[in-house]
Amino acid sequence: MLDVRRMQMLRAVVSSGSVTAAAARLGYTPSAISQQVAALEKEAGTELLERVGRGVRPTAAGLLLTEHADAIARQVGEAETALADLLAGRTGRLSVRYFATAGAALVAPAVARLRTEHPRVQIELKLIDPEDPLPDVREGRADLALVVGPQAAAHEGVRLLHLLDDPYLAVLPKGHPLATRRTLELAELAEEPWVGSEWPGPCLDAQLAACEAAGFRPRFVVDSEDYVTAQGFVAAGLGVTLIPRLGLGGRHPDVVVRQLRAPEPTRSIHAAVRETAPPQPALEAFVEALRVAAGG
Q1: Is 2 left (phi over 0), alpha (psi -120 to 50) or beta?
Q2: Burial letters for 192-221: b for 16+ Cβ neighbours within 10 Å, e otherwise?
Q3: pLDDT for 137-166, tens place per residue?
Q4: Distance (Å, rounded) from C-alpha 33 to C-alpha 183?
Q5: Is the pLDDT of residue 107 over 60?
Q6: Fold (topology level) of 94-163+272-293
Q7: Distance from the Cα of residue 137 to its chain's centroid
């Protein structure tokens, strides 16, 4: 097998025209250069240099290896440039998992900011169930996932970065007696029929924990799988519901939205990253872009 380092020494000898000049350029003694070229000739099984006056010139085999050494040097230079770009965050590839309501409010502006500041960073976006995207992060299939609540704390190897607290708002039919108030206490909804806006999981847990703190458990009369559908049931007069602020992108014309207190139900949104992941400037830039989008 040909030694790449020795090929680069041969390249220096050929380009400078003599062993002495190559040694001065590389910082070796002439005898050390001669020994390495001799070792390369033994590896190649043929002579690589011939004497011409006080200098040397490559044989056909020496010229061939010199050309390949040039190509290797170019590739190494390109690799060094690519590595420097990656370590500086100018390039890279990120795989991101997110859930629907975080998409428009957080992910979209964060991606737009990253593309402006780091246009050569590639981002793979995948919409996922917010229940448990953490195995993808922990096992390295994703660099980052947006998650709700503290459930990630139970997963070894995952680190949570808090982005924002997303409060739930009360959604009432337009003609509801409480609709005239700007702020409601959560306990005032205790006797109301409720339209479910969340599937079981951390988002619903945040609602139920707040209701328990207010002294009641909501009576669900309708289950719906998304916030738009829940608003439709509320508009039809079937009950009231809670929807997080990020989930109120489009409001039904026949509902009103009111703030809650005592307590204010809130879901906590985090970016989950792998605890043992090596530093990635592109990932750090994306996390910062998410924090900006979240208002932090």
Answers
A1: beta
A2: bbbbbbbeeebbbbbbeebbeebeeebeee
A3: 888 899 999 998 765 455 678 899 999 999
A4: 84
A5: yes
A6: D-Maltodextrin-Binding Protein; domain 2 (3.40.190)
A7: 10
Token pair belonging to 70: 């040039």
**Cα 52 to the center of its chain, rounded Å:** 60
Contacts of 128 (CB under 8 A, 6+ apart): 97, 98, 99, 136, 145
The phi, psi pair for 98, rounded to 5°, reads: -145, 160
Q: Give per-residue pLDDT as tens, 218-264.
A: 999 999 878 999 999 999 999 999 999 999 988 899 999 999 999 99
Q: Which of 158, 153, 171, 163 is nearest to 99 (CA)?
A: 163
Grouping H, G, I as helix, E, B as strand and the rest as coil, residue 3 is coil
CA 145/CA 126 separation, integer angstroms: 9
pLDDT at residue 194 greater than cutoff 60: yes
- Please list, in sequence order, all residues whose beta carbon lies within 8 angstroms of the beta carbon of residue 209, skipping any fewer than 6 positions away: 265
Identify the CATH assignment for 4-87 out of 3.30.1340.30, 1.10.10.10, 3.60.130.10, 3.40.190.10: 1.10.10.10
